[in-house]
User: Which sequence fits this backbone?
């Protein structure tokens, strides 16, 4: 599943270009995530850069969210 219109922790614009070593925290709207038929297939969150570098991770919160549906 994809979050095409994320909620940003710093209220900045999206999409945006990040400078090296710069970070942004991105959230999804819980109601939309829980209503998605794909939520049961989520195993991690990831971000992909324009140069195709992928970072992924999984938190306990994400694990519990998937298990709760």
Assistant:
């Amino acid at each position: 599943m994809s979050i095409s219109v994320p909620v940003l922790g710093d209220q900045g614009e999206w999409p945006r270009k990040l400078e090296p070593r710069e970070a942004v925290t991105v959230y999804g709207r819980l109601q939309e995530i829980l209503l998605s038929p794909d939520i049961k297939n989520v195993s991690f969150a990831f971000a992909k850069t324009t140069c195709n570098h992928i970072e992924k991770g999984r938190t306990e919160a994400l694990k519990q969210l998937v298990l709760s549906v």
Q: What stands out?
A: The CA atoms of residues 2 and 66 lie 15 Å apart. The chain has a mean pLDDT of 90. Strands lie at 7-8, 26-27, 45-48, 54-57. Residues 60-67 form the longest helix (8 residues).
